[in-house]
Amino acid sequence: MPVVMRRLRDPDINPCLSESDASTRCMDENNYDRERCSSYFLKYKNCRRFWNSIMIQRRQNGVKPSMPTAAERDEILGAMGKMPY
Asked: What are φ and ψ of residue 38, in 5° steps?
């Protein structure tokens, strides 16, 4: 597997892996009809927006790494009580 693909599939790097997989699966199942998968695209977009804001906050606060690891993300989501996106 190419390095770029490995990075995209790494749950520590890509916080929206499940949303990405769901939108791809929807496209496959619906013969690439984008209208039928718009809710999946919106959820992925909101996921990216949420984690990007977390990453910006961490960078401003000097926290390294700027993107939380998968375990840290689970803790953040658990503290919120529900999915924010």
From this structure: -60, -35
- Terminal Cα distance for the chain, rounded: 30
Q: Please tell me the pTM assigned to this model.
A: 0.87
The single-letter DSSP state of residue 74 is H
Tokens 């190419």 correspond to 2
**Alpha-carbon gap, residue 55 to 72, rounded angstroms:** 12
Q: List all residues 6 or more positions away from 6 whose beta carbon is below 8 Å from its beta carbon.
A: none
Q: What digits encode the pLDDT tens for the residues 24-73?
A: 999 999 999 999 999 999 999 999 999 999 999 999 999 999 999 999 99
